[in-house]
Amino acid sequence: MNDSQELIRTPFYNFHVEAGAKMVPFAGFHMPVQYKGITAEHLAVRKNVGLFDLSHMGEFEVSGSDALAFLQKTTTNNVEALEVGQIQYTCMPTPEGGIVDDLLVYRLEDRYFLVVNASNIKKDFEWLQTHVFGDVKLENLSADTGLLAIQGPNAEKLMAKLTDYDLTTMRYYTWARAKVAGVEILFSRTGYTGEDGFELYIPAQHGATLWNAIVEKGKPAGLELIGLGARDSLRLEMKMALYGNDIDETTSPVEAGLSWIIDFDKEFVGKDIILRHKLEKPKRRLVCLELEGKAFPRHGYEIYDGDSVIGEVTSGTFSPSLQKPIALGYVPRGKSKAGSVVEVAIRTRRFKAVVVKPPFYKEGSHK
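Below the sequence we write its predicted C-alpha coordinates.
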Protein backbone atom coordinates (compact mmCIF):
# COMPACT_ATOMS: atom_id res chain seq x y z
CA MET A 1 0.00 0.00 0.00
CA ASN A 2 1.37 3.43 -0.95
CA ASP A 3 1.63 6.17 1.65
CA SER A 4 -0.60 8.30 -0.57
CA GLN A 5 -3.45 5.81 -0.33
CA GLU A 6 -6.04 6.39 2.37
CA LEU A 7 -6.71 3.81 5.03
CA ILE A 8 -9.81 1.70 4.44
CA ARG A 9 -12.69 1.94 6.89
CA THR A 10 -14.53 -1.28 7.72
CA PRO A 11 -18.37 -1.23 7.72
CA PHE A 12 -18.14 -0.85 11.51
CA TYR A 13 -15.70 2.09 11.69
CA ASN A 14 -18.24 4.59 13.05
CA PHE A 15 -19.31 2.15 15.77
CA HIS A 16 -15.70 1.81 16.94
CA VAL A 17 -15.25 5.57 17.12
CA GLU A 18 -18.55 6.00 19.00
CA ALA A 19 -17.44 3.32 21.48
CA GLY A 20 -14.24 5.24 22.20
CA ALA A 21 -11.86 2.81 20.53
CA LYS A 22 -8.24 3.75 20.01
CA MET A 23 -7.92 3.47 16.23
CA VAL A 24 -4.65 2.52 14.52
CA PRO A 25 -3.49 1.76 10.95
CA PHE A 26 -3.28 -2.01 10.38
CA ALA A 27 -2.74 -3.75 7.03
CA GLY A 28 -4.14 -0.70 5.21
CA PHE A 29 -7.24 -0.41 7.41
CA HIS A 30 -8.44 1.80 10.26
CA MET A 31 -8.75 -0.77 13.07
CA PRO A 32 -9.52 -0.60 16.81
CA VAL A 33 -6.52 -1.70 18.87
CA GLN A 34 -8.40 -1.42 22.18
CA TYR A 35 -11.51 -0.02 23.87
CA LYS A 36 -11.37 -0.41 27.68
CA GLY A 37 -7.88 -1.92 27.69
CA ILE A 38 -6.14 -5.01 26.32
CA THR A 39 -6.08 -7.00 29.58
CA ALA A 40 -9.75 -6.37 30.40
CA GLU A 41 -10.80 -7.26 26.85
CA HIS A 42 -8.63 -10.39 26.82
CA LEU A 43 -10.12 -11.67 30.08
CA ALA A 44 -13.66 -10.87 28.90
CA VAL A 45 -13.17 -13.34 26.03
CA ARG A 46 -11.64 -15.98 28.31
CA LYS A 47 -14.42 -15.67 30.91
CA ASN A 48 -17.53 -14.51 29.04
CA VAL A 49 -17.94 -13.21 25.48
CA GLY A 50 -16.46 -10.58 23.18
CA LEU A 51 -17.17 -9.04 19.76
CA PHE A 52 -14.41 -8.54 17.18
CA ASP A 53 -14.42 -6.66 13.87
CA LEU A 54 -12.39 -8.80 11.45
CA SER A 55 -13.56 -7.09 8.27
CA HIS A 56 -9.95 -6.45 7.27
CA MET A 57 -9.51 -10.15 6.50
CA GLY A 58 -9.65 -11.20 2.84
CA GLU A 59 -12.30 -13.44 1.24
CA PHE A 60 -11.94 -15.18 -2.13
CA GLU A 61 -14.25 -17.53 -4.02
CA VAL A 62 -12.94 -20.33 -6.22
CA SER A 63 -15.36 -22.04 -8.61
CA GLY A 64 -15.33 -24.06 -11.82
CA SER A 65 -14.89 -27.74 -12.66
CA ASP A 66 -11.13 -27.57 -11.90
CA ALA A 67 -11.49 -25.68 -8.58
CA LEU A 68 -10.65 -28.74 -6.45
CA ALA A 69 -7.58 -29.67 -8.52
CA PHE A 70 -6.44 -26.04 -8.40
CA LEU A 71 -6.69 -25.85 -4.59
CA GLN A 72 -5.03 -29.25 -4.20
CA LYS A 73 -2.06 -27.86 -6.15
CA THR A 74 -1.86 -24.49 -4.37
CA THR A 75 -2.46 -25.52 -0.74
CA THR A 76 -0.80 -28.12 1.49
CA ASN A 77 -3.79 -29.77 3.18
CA ASN A 78 -6.08 -32.31 1.50
CA VAL A 79 -8.99 -30.25 0.16
CA GLU A 80 -10.56 -33.39 -1.31
CA ALA A 81 -11.26 -34.61 2.24
CA LEU A 82 -13.62 -31.67 2.84
CA GLU A 83 -17.35 -32.35 2.74
CA VAL A 84 -19.89 -29.59 2.14
CA GLY A 85 -20.23 -27.68 5.42
CA GLN A 86 -16.66 -28.30 6.56
CA ILE A 87 -13.69 -25.93 6.92
CA GLN A 88 -9.97 -26.61 6.78
CA TYR A 89 -6.89 -24.79 8.04
CA THR A 90 -4.07 -24.88 5.51
CA CYS A 91 -1.31 -22.83 3.92
CA MET A 92 -0.19 -21.81 0.46
CA PRO A 93 3.43 -22.89 -0.05
CA THR A 94 6.10 -21.19 -2.14
CA PRO A 95 8.11 -23.22 -4.68
CA GLU A 96 11.04 -22.84 -2.25
CA GLY A 97 9.11 -24.43 0.62
CA GLY A 98 8.15 -21.25 2.46
CA ILE A 99 4.67 -19.93 3.25
CA VAL A 100 2.80 -17.47 1.01
CA ASP A 101 0.04 -17.30 3.63
CA ASP A 102 -1.95 -19.42 6.05
CA LEU A 103 -5.69 -19.52 5.40
CA LEU A 104 -9.04 -21.23 5.84
CA VAL A 105 -10.79 -23.16 3.06
CA TYR A 106 -14.59 -23.49 3.26
CA ARG A 107 -16.26 -26.20 1.16
CA LEU A 108 -19.49 -24.66 -0.14
CA GLU A 109 -22.12 -26.53 -2.17
CA ASP A 110 -20.62 -25.77 -5.59
CA ARG A 111 -17.46 -23.78 -4.88
CA TYR A 112 -14.83 -22.94 -2.29
CA PHE A 113 -14.50 -19.92 -0.03
CA LEU A 114 -11.04 -18.84 1.17
CA VAL A 115 -10.27 -16.56 4.11
CA VAL A 116 -6.80 -15.00 4.01
CA ASN A 117 -4.80 -12.55 6.11
CA ALA A 118 -5.47 -8.83 5.70
CA SER A 119 -1.86 -7.89 4.95
CA ASN A 120 -1.69 -10.49 2.17
CA ILE A 121 -4.94 -9.95 0.24
CA LYS A 122 -3.34 -8.46 -2.87
CA LYS A 123 -0.30 -10.75 -2.78
CA ASP A 124 -2.39 -13.90 -2.24
CA PHE A 125 -4.86 -13.09 -5.01
CA GLU A 126 -2.10 -12.36 -7.52
CA TRP A 127 -0.21 -15.51 -6.49
CA LEU A 128 -3.31 -17.65 -6.97
CA GLN A 129 -4.01 -16.00 -10.32
CA THR A 130 -0.56 -17.01 -11.60
CA HIS A 131 -1.41 -20.66 -10.86
CA VAL A 132 -4.89 -20.76 -12.41
CA PHE A 133 -5.45 -23.47 -15.03
CA GLY A 134 -8.39 -25.02 -16.85
CA ASP A 135 -11.90 -24.17 -15.69
CA VAL A 136 -11.16 -22.09 -12.59
CA LYS A 137 -12.84 -18.81 -11.66
CA LEU A 138 -11.20 -16.78 -8.92
CA GLU A 139 -13.08 -13.85 -7.33
CA ASN A 140 -11.97 -11.37 -4.65
CA LEU A 141 -14.98 -10.62 -2.42
CA SER A 142 -13.00 -8.82 0.30
CA ALA A 143 -14.23 -5.27 -0.34
CA ASP A 144 -17.91 -6.27 -0.18
CA THR A 145 -17.70 -8.50 2.91
CA GLY A 146 -17.93 -7.46 6.54
CA LEU A 147 -16.79 -9.95 9.18
CA LEU A 148 -17.71 -9.99 12.86
CA ALA A 149 -16.64 -12.65 15.36
CA ILE A 150 -18.34 -13.55 18.63
CA GLN A 151 -15.84 -15.38 20.86
CA GLY A 152 -15.88 -16.73 24.40
CA PRO A 153 -17.33 -19.53 26.53
CA ASN A 154 -20.75 -17.83 26.32
CA ALA A 155 -20.63 -17.27 22.55
CA GLU A 156 -23.27 -19.92 21.85
CA LYS A 157 -25.67 -18.39 24.38
CA LEU A 158 -25.41 -15.02 22.68
CA MET A 159 -25.58 -16.44 19.15
CA ALA A 160 -28.74 -18.37 20.12
CA LYS A 161 -30.47 -15.03 20.81
CA LEU A 162 -29.76 -13.94 17.24
CA THR A 163 -30.73 -17.00 15.19
CA ASP A 164 -33.22 -19.89 15.18
CA TYR A 165 -30.53 -22.20 13.74
CA ASP A 166 -29.86 -25.16 16.04
CA LEU A 167 -26.31 -24.32 17.15
CA THR A 168 -26.07 -27.48 19.26
CA THR A 169 -25.69 -29.44 16.01
CA MET A 170 -22.86 -27.24 14.75
CA ARG A 171 -19.41 -28.73 15.22
CA TYR A 172 -16.03 -27.03 15.40
CA TYR A 173 -14.67 -26.04 11.96
CA THR A 174 -18.02 -26.12 10.17
CA TRP A 175 -20.22 -23.43 8.60
CA ALA A 176 -23.94 -22.91 8.09
CA ARG A 177 -26.34 -20.55 6.35
CA ALA A 178 -29.25 -19.10 8.27
CA LYS A 179 -30.94 -15.87 9.28
CA VAL A 180 -29.00 -14.01 11.95
CA ALA A 181 -30.74 -10.88 13.23
CA GLY A 182 -33.11 -11.30 10.30
CA VAL A 183 -30.37 -11.31 7.65
CA GLU A 184 -29.50 -14.46 5.69
CA ILE A 185 -25.73 -14.97 6.05
CA LEU A 186 -23.02 -17.58 6.11
CA PHE A 187 -21.45 -18.09 9.52
CA SER A 188 -18.87 -20.51 10.89
CA ARG A 189 -17.60 -21.95 14.15
CA THR A 190 -13.80 -21.82 14.07
CA GLY A 191 -12.05 -19.14 16.10
CA TYR A 192 -8.47 -18.13 16.88
CA THR A 193 -8.79 -17.50 20.62
CA GLY A 194 -9.05 -21.03 22.00
CA GLU A 195 -12.60 -20.25 23.04
CA ASP A 196 -15.88 -21.24 21.44
CA GLY A 197 -16.93 -18.75 18.81
CA PHE A 198 -18.69 -17.82 15.59
CA GLU A 199 -17.60 -15.80 12.56
CA LEU A 200 -20.33 -13.93 10.67
CA TYR A 201 -19.73 -13.06 7.00
CA ILE A 202 -21.96 -10.07 6.35
CA PRO A 203 -22.76 -8.22 3.10
CA ALA A 204 -21.43 -4.73 3.80
CA GLN A 205 -24.87 -3.10 3.42
CA HIS A 206 -26.19 -5.16 6.36
CA GLY A 207 -23.29 -4.34 8.69
CA ALA A 208 -25.21 -1.88 10.89
CA THR A 209 -28.14 -4.28 11.34
CA LEU A 210 -25.90 -7.09 12.57
CA TRP A 211 -23.70 -4.88 14.78
CA ASN A 212 -26.67 -3.26 16.52
CA ALA A 213 -28.43 -6.58 17.08
CA ILE A 214 -25.34 -8.27 18.55
CA VAL A 215 -24.58 -5.35 20.86
CA GLU A 216 -28.23 -5.06 21.97
CA LYS A 217 -28.55 -8.78 22.75
CA GLY A 218 -25.07 -8.97 24.22
CA LYS A 219 -25.20 -6.03 26.63
CA PRO A 220 -27.28 -7.80 29.32
CA ALA A 221 -24.79 -10.69 29.16
CA GLY A 222 -21.76 -8.43 29.60
CA LEU A 223 -20.56 -8.49 25.99
CA GLU A 224 -17.34 -6.53 25.51
CA LEU A 225 -15.94 -5.02 22.32
CA ILE A 226 -12.48 -6.43 21.58
CA GLY A 227 -9.62 -4.77 19.71
CA LEU A 228 -6.53 -6.01 17.88
CA GLY A 229 -4.41 -5.92 21.05
CA ALA A 230 -6.42 -8.59 22.86
CA ARG A 231 -6.85 -10.54 19.65
CA ASP A 232 -3.06 -10.83 19.48
CA SER A 233 -2.58 -11.89 23.11
CA LEU A 234 -5.43 -14.42 22.86
CA ARG A 235 -4.02 -16.11 19.75
CA LEU A 236 -0.51 -16.08 21.22
CA GLU A 237 -1.67 -17.96 24.34
CA MET A 238 -2.92 -20.67 21.93
CA LYS A 239 0.34 -20.73 19.87
CA MET A 240 -1.56 -19.67 16.76
CA ALA A 241 1.06 -18.37 14.33
CA LEU A 242 0.73 -14.78 13.09
CA TYR A 243 1.76 -14.26 9.48
CA GLY A 244 4.57 -11.74 9.21
CA ASN A 245 5.77 -12.51 12.74
CA ASP A 246 5.92 -16.27 13.31
CA ILE A 247 5.59 -17.49 9.72
CA ASP A 248 6.39 -16.00 6.32
CA GLU A 249 7.98 -16.88 2.97
CA THR A 250 11.30 -17.67 4.71
CA THR A 251 9.81 -20.20 7.15
CA SER A 252 8.95 -23.81 6.40
CA PRO A 253 5.60 -25.11 7.65
CA VAL A 254 7.54 -28.05 9.11
CA GLU A 255 9.79 -25.92 11.33
CA ALA A 256 6.75 -23.82 12.29
CA GLY A 257 5.04 -26.94 13.70
CA LEU A 258 2.46 -27.07 10.91
CA SER A 259 3.21 -30.55 9.55
CA TRP A 260 -0.33 -31.52 10.56
CA ILE A 261 -1.74 -29.36 7.75
CA ILE A 262 0.43 -30.99 5.06
CA ASP A 263 -0.75 -34.00 3.01
CA PHE A 264 2.28 -35.55 1.35
CA ASP A 265 0.10 -38.04 -0.54
CA LYS A 266 -0.85 -35.36 -3.07
CA GLU A 267 1.11 -33.04 -5.36
CA PHE A 268 1.40 -29.36 -4.46
CA VAL A 269 3.69 -26.41 -5.03
CA GLY A 270 7.01 -26.86 -3.20
CA LYS A 271 6.20 -30.42 -2.09
CA ASP A 272 9.65 -31.90 -2.76
CA ILE A 273 11.42 -29.28 -0.66
CA ILE A 274 8.90 -29.40 2.20
CA LEU A 275 9.06 -33.21 2.21
CA ARG A 276 12.85 -33.00 2.45
CA HIS A 277 12.47 -30.61 5.40
CA LYS A 278 10.33 -33.22 7.15
CA LEU A 279 12.53 -36.22 6.35
CA GLU A 280 15.82 -34.51 7.20
CA LYS A 281 14.25 -32.76 10.22
CA PRO A 282 14.51 -28.96 10.35
CA LYS A 283 17.52 -27.32 11.96
CA ARG A 284 15.24 -25.06 13.99
CA ARG A 285 11.73 -25.16 15.39
CA LEU A 286 9.14 -22.64 16.55
CA VAL A 287 8.72 -23.11 20.30
CA CYS A 288 6.69 -21.76 23.21
CA LEU A 289 8.74 -19.99 25.89
CA GLU A 290 7.66 -19.06 29.42
CA LEU A 291 9.89 -16.40 30.95
CA GLU A 292 10.76 -15.70 34.56
CA GLY A 293 10.41 -12.29 36.19
CA LYS A 294 8.55 -9.21 35.00
CA ALA A 295 9.87 -9.39 31.47
CA PHE A 296 7.92 -8.21 28.44
CA PRO A 297 9.29 -10.08 25.41
CA ARG A 298 8.72 -8.50 22.01
CA HIS A 299 9.22 -9.40 18.37
CA GLY A 300 12.92 -9.31 17.42
CA TYR A 301 14.42 -9.79 20.90
CA GLU A 302 17.41 -12.16 20.82
CA ILE A 303 17.36 -15.65 22.33
CA TYR A 304 20.61 -16.85 23.92
CA ASP A 305 22.17 -20.15 24.88
CA GLY A 306 25.10 -19.14 27.04
CA ASP A 307 26.99 -16.45 25.14
CA SER A 308 25.60 -17.48 21.75
CA VAL A 309 22.61 -15.91 20.03
CA ILE A 310 20.56 -18.88 18.81
CA GLY A 311 17.35 -17.22 17.65
CA GLU A 312 14.91 -14.41 18.23
CA VAL A 313 11.43 -13.85 19.59
CA THR A 314 8.78 -13.80 16.86
CA SER A 315 5.82 -12.92 19.14
CA GLY A 316 5.70 -12.05 22.83
CA THR A 317 3.52 -10.54 25.54
CA PHE A 318 2.68 -10.66 29.23
CA SER A 319 -0.09 -13.29 29.34
CA PRO A 320 -3.24 -11.89 31.01
CA SER A 321 -4.57 -15.43 31.60
CA LEU A 322 -1.39 -16.98 33.02
CA GLN A 323 0.06 -13.83 34.60
CA LYS A 324 3.51 -14.51 33.23
CA PRO A 325 5.59 -13.45 30.21
CA ILE A 326 5.26 -15.74 27.18
CA ALA A 327 6.85 -15.78 23.74
CA LEU A 328 7.23 -17.71 20.51
CA GLY A 329 10.58 -18.01 18.78
CA TYR A 330 12.72 -20.21 16.56
CA VAL A 331 15.52 -22.12 18.30
CA PRO A 332 17.88 -24.92 17.15
CA ARG A 333 16.30 -28.37 17.21
CA GLY A 334 18.53 -29.40 20.11
CA LYS A 335 16.95 -26.69 22.25
CA SER A 336 13.35 -27.26 21.13
CA LYS A 337 12.25 -29.98 23.56
CA ALA A 338 9.99 -29.10 26.49
CA GLY A 339 12.10 -28.31 29.52
CA SER A 340 14.99 -26.83 27.55
CA VAL A 341 16.32 -23.62 29.10
CA VAL A 342 17.41 -20.53 27.18
CA GLU A 343 17.55 -16.78 27.88
CA VAL A 344 15.79 -13.84 26.24
CA ALA A 345 17.61 -10.51 26.08
CA ILE A 346 15.38 -7.59 27.04
CA ARG A 347 17.15 -4.23 27.01
CA THR A 348 20.28 -4.71 29.18
CA ARG A 349 19.15 -7.88 30.96
CA ARG A 350 18.65 -11.52 30.12
CA PHE A 351 15.68 -13.45 31.44
CA LYS A 352 15.56 -17.21 31.89
CA ALA A 353 13.04 -18.87 29.56
CA VAL A 354 11.83 -22.47 29.52
CA VAL A 355 10.44 -24.29 26.47
CA VAL A 356 6.92 -25.56 27.23
CA LYS A 357 4.45 -27.71 25.32
CA PRO A 358 1.81 -25.75 23.36
CA PRO A 359 -0.57 -24.18 23.88
CA PHE A 360 0.31 -21.89 26.78
CA TYR A 361 -3.36 -21.67 27.80
CA LYS A 362 -5.04 -25.06 28.13
CA GLU A 363 -8.51 -24.20 29.48
CA GLY A 364 -10.13 -23.01 26.23
CA SER A 365 -13.84 -23.65 25.66
CA HIS A 366 -13.89 -24.36 21.92
CA LYS A 367 -15.79 -27.47 20.86
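The domain at 8-56+143-236 is CATH 3.30.1360.120 (Gyrase A; domain 2).
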